[in-house]
Structure formats: C-alpha cells, structure tokens
Write a structure and sequence with these properties.
By secondary structure, this protein is of the alpha/beta class. It has 16 helices and 17 strands. The protein has three domains: 152 residues, FAD/NAD(P)-binding domain (3-Layer(bba) Sandwich), CATH 3.50.50; 159 residues, 2-Layer Sandwich (D-Amino Acid Oxidase, Chain A, domain 2); 131 residues, Helicase, Ruva Protein, domain 3, CATH 1.10.8. Helix content is 35%, strand content 21%. The radius of gyration is 23 Å and the shape is globular. About 1% of the residues have low confidence.
Length: 543
C-alpha cells in the first residue's frame, strides 16, 4: 500500500479572527481554545510543533510545591487545579506519580522545620483534593542515600507527562477538528499594522520558500523564548520582555536500586533538583543559566553536565554509574519575564499576557512565561483578553481516577485495538497509551495492510500505522517530526542508526518515498536528533 501525503495548506490571501504565532504548548492551547469558541484561527510555527522548549522540559505536571516558599499561593492553587484537570481529561498521557522530597540536614541546616514542611505538604495535598498515593518508596530510597549525611524524606503526589509532544499533538488535532488551520515550518516575516492596530502578517513557507500575506483581527505572539525575536523582526521598539533561562538535563540508564518514585531535592547550591523515572531511563535536571542567545542552539555546557551528574551521585552514591553512562543531554530556554538584577530562582513562574496597544499595535498580545501544567488556563485567559468567551468551565471538582483505573481501561482498550489491527497486545497497549481515542482508527488502518502493521524497528512495539497517522492527521512533515514528536520512539534507550534506517525504509515504503528521499530523511533525522539530544556516540563494531 502507498499513500499520498496531504498537500501543504496555502494561507495566502486568507483572513482570520486570530493568528497564533508559535506551536509550543502555549500556542497550541490558545489556538485550540479560540477555535473551540467558533473563531477562525491560524497557528504557525517556524519549525515543527512541540520542537522547542516544550520538548525540553522536565516532563512533570506539578502544582509547584517550591512556589509556596515564594508566597505564590494563587499560582500553586491554579497549578494544582490544572494538574487534576489534565489527569482527568488525558489519563493515558498524564499519570499520577509519587514524589519524595529529600532535604539534606548538612546542605541547608535549620532552614526549615519539619513541622513547616509537613504543613506545606498538607496544604498542597488539601488544595489538590485528590486521594493519596500509598508510599512504598520512601524507606527504600532512604537506604540509597549517603549515610554520611542526615536526610529528611517526605512523600507527596504530583504527576508526570512522559511525552508532552503527544499531549500537544492531541491538542493540535482537537484545534484542527474545530476548524483551525495549522502550519508548521512557517515563519512570520512581518506583523502588519495600520492606524495603531495589527492587520495581519507576512509569512514564508520554509518548505517551498513561498511568501504569503494574511489578514488577522488579533495576533498572539506565543513563540516562547522567541517572543522578542518575533517583535524585533517586525520592527517593534518594545523593551525586552523575555529573560531567557537555560534549563539542562541529562538522561542516565536505570540502575539497581533506583526508586520507583520521582525525587525532588535541593542541589548543593540550593536550586531545585529532580531525579525522575522516565521512558525506561532516569531523567536528571535541571539547571538555571541566563541565556539570551538563539534558543534553537541551546545546549548544556560541560559545567552543567558536571553539576547534574555530581548532584545525582550525591543522592545515589551506590548507583555505580559514571559520566560515561550519560546517554543524552539536552537543554531548553525558559521564557521567563525579563527581570534584571533579580535571582533567577526568585523570578515569578506566573505567566504574563503583554498587551501591545501602547506600542501602536492594538490586537497584539505577547505571552511571557507559562508552563505545561497551566497552558490551558493561560489559553482561557488569553481568549478572554481578546474578547473571546471560554467554552470550558474554570473549576471542576471531581477527583482524578487512580493510576490502577487507567491501567485497567488501557488493557481493555488494548484488547480491542489488538483484535481490530491483528497485532500483539503489547503493541496495542503502546498505541492506546500514546494515542488514546485515536488508537482504534489507527488499528482500523493497520488492519488493511501488513506494511502498516510492521514495527517501526525490530525492537519497537510501535507500528508504521502510527507514523501514517502522524503525517495524515497530525501535521508531521519529516521523519524527525514522526520519530521525535508524534511517535517519539527515538527518545527511548535502545535507539540507534540501524533503527533509523529500518524506520525510514518502512515508513517510506508506505508514503511513497524513493531511495534518495529515504536517505535524505534519515540524514536529516540524525542531524536533528543530534542537535536535540546530543547522544553518546555508538560504539564502533569490529567485524
């Protein structure tokens, strides 16, 4: 079977109620909200959707326990409310997770009393209104800690989104289903203004090179760390809005004695520090380094990598891991409010919607800050700012289902998918976990052809039909779009260049790629994966 890839949409000459610039978590959430309210919406992204800061985070959905220390009570309560909405609405992608707060007595002696910490955790739990996760990990973790230090360990609940790329793909599909037009690889060259108001934009298609012009009543600059760059390109004299902060991570293998819970502690310099089970590996982060350079070129420096590993080793002195075991390292730029003279840890994590009316551009707003957990709340607030009524109530009081409940549901769903697609239940479960309600449509497509049921590579449970879904319905253009973001198997512990070749050949055979295109896509994928993850070189095999 060979399929015809959908043609890229031309925006030239079209008019929109809302143009959203930026295809990260905030931009897609805003486009979805405005489209659900009946507005004609276009969302454009200069690279691929979810390829910037959204894919370079610590991948947790949290209420912001650390914000309590800084007195940001409203942000904590909003974050907890939004966390529980995500748990309820996307239980296959957002899962409850136990966190262990570990505080060293020697690192910051007497800074906090146990009763103050317990009170803060009690408030955190009470505001969440969720059932507690039974703690089975705290005692085992305490045995792993360096016996030469005194530690206090406290258990609490938050959540994890292992693959925010998949969550964003779902929101994108929901926006498109409501009539939004989504164009990745589309750069905004200029925001047009007339008589003190925005009127539209000039765009360039990064694939064809063609330029186009559109009209728009409102424009949302939700380009994250690129907010100031977008404004500068359009000749705005606005003062600096974004104070970029680089957050770096390393990925290690799972190790003997690794806890099943996420660990939240303080690094030796007092910054928040996480060690989290992720995707069959161990995710360690993060740093805070001022970075105002091109966000696309963000990468950890040697000092950050040393900092991350050394703080990990301090927590797990018996792990027997060394720096040579680091599989990947990656970094993203947090688009925090520009706050010269303030410590980065003290800069608010509350988002800001900046109105450009006083800059001679009524109808234009820029989004400063924001995070995965509160993206939908930001979207509702932005819609209201534009005079668009929200379609979603702000408060839902029902508690999320426990993790065991979603596992039971996924098992039932996987059996349906397996029977429909004639694939093993392990593959069906993997598809159901990543694609939710779309899993049965993928299974229906897979049932039509053996090539669509083929695994993406020899050790993957995910199949070619998922890649086809990514191209046909989720705006994927390149092999990297598919394997890093829509079906992110290439983030796993076992991916290699041979996997790339297998996946490219199997996907290409269905999409009608010739050998030259398969080779070109494979090379482009390896380059992008290297820029993103900085993977450890594969060992040279001697025949």
């Amino acid at each position: 079977m060979q399929l015809t890839c959908p043609a890229r949409t031309s925006l030239d000459g079209q008019g929109f109620d809302v143009l959203v610039i930026g295809g990260g978590v905030n931009g897609i959430a805003i486009a979805r909200e405005c489209a659900r309210s009946g507005k004609k919406v276009a969302v454009v992204e200069q690279n691929d959707f979810a390829s910037g800061a959204s894919s370079r985070s610590t991948r947790i959905i949290h209420g912001g326990l650390r914000y309590l220390e800084h007195g940001e009570i409203a942000l904590v309560r909003e974050s907890l409310r939004e966390r529980d909405r995500l748990l309820r609405r996307y239980p296959n992608l957002v899962r409850p997770m136990e966190f262990l707060l570990a505080l060293s007595h020697e690192a910051r002696p007497f800074m906090r009393s146990a009763i103050a910490i317990r009170t803060g955790l009690w408030l955190y739990h009470r505001w969440a209104g969720a059932p507690r996760i039974a703690s089975n990990c705290a005692r085992a973790f305490e045995r792993q800690l360096d016996a030469g230090h005194g530690w206090s360990v406290f258990s609490y609940e938050d959540a994890q989104c292992e693959f925010p790329e998949r969550l964003i793909a779902e929101w994108l599909a929901e926006a498109v289903a409501e009539g939004a037009i989504a164009c990745n690889y589309t750069q905004v060259l200029d925001i047009a203004r007339k008589n003190g108001r925005v009127t539209g934009a000039r765009l360039r298609d990064g694939i064809s090179g063609k330029e186009s012009e559109i009209t728009a009543s409102c424009i949302v600059n939700a380009s994250g760390p690129w907010v100031d760059f977008v404004l500068q390109d359009s000749g705005f004299a606005t003062s600096k809005l974004i104070g970029g902060v680089r957050g770096s991570h390393i990925v290690l293998p799972r190790f003997t004695g690794a806890p099943g819970a996420a660990i939240y502690t303080e690094a030796t310099d007092g910054r928040p520090f996480f060690v989290i089970p992720w995707n069959g590996q161990t995710l360690v982060g993060t740093t805070e380094v001022a970075d105002s350079a091109d966000p696309a070129k963000a990468h950890p420096n040697a000092e950050e990598i040393d900092y991350l590993f050394d703080n990990f080793a301090r927590l797990f002195p018996g792990s027997q891991l060394t720096k040579a075991d680091i599989r990947y390292n990656f970094a993203g730029i947090r688009p925090l409010p520009y706050s010269p003279g303030r410590k980065m840890s003290e800069v608010t994590r509350q988002h800001v919607i900046y109105d450009h009316t006083h800059d001679g551009a009524a109808g234009l707003v820029s989004i400063i800050g924001g995070k995965l957990t509160t993206a939908r709340a930001l979207a509702r607030e932005t819609a209201r700012k534009l005079g668009i009524a929200s379609t979603e109530p702000a408060n839902i009081l029902a508690a999320p289902a426990p993790a065991s409940g979603i596992e039971s549901t996924l098992e039932q769903w996987a059996r349906l998918v397996a029977a429909k697609a004639r694939i093993p239940e392990t593959s069906a479960h993997a598809i159901a976990a990543w694609h939710g309600r779309r899993a049965l449509a993928i299974a229906s497509a897979a049932s039509l052809d053996d090539a669509l049921r083929s695994p993406l590579c020899s050790h993957s449970e995910h199949i070619v039909a998922e890649a086809v879904e990514a191209v046909m319905h989720e705006s994927a253009v390149t092999l990297a779009d598919i394997l890093l973001r829509r079906v992110p198997v290439a983030l796993g512990p076992c991916w290699s260049e041979s996997c790339t070749q297998q996946a490219a050949s199997r996907i290409g055979a269905v999409l009608g790629w010739n050998r030259t295109q398969i080779d070109r896509e494979s090379e482009g994928f390896e380059q992008e994966r290297g820029r993103f993850l900085h993977p450890k070189p594969e060992p040279v095999r001697v025949s």
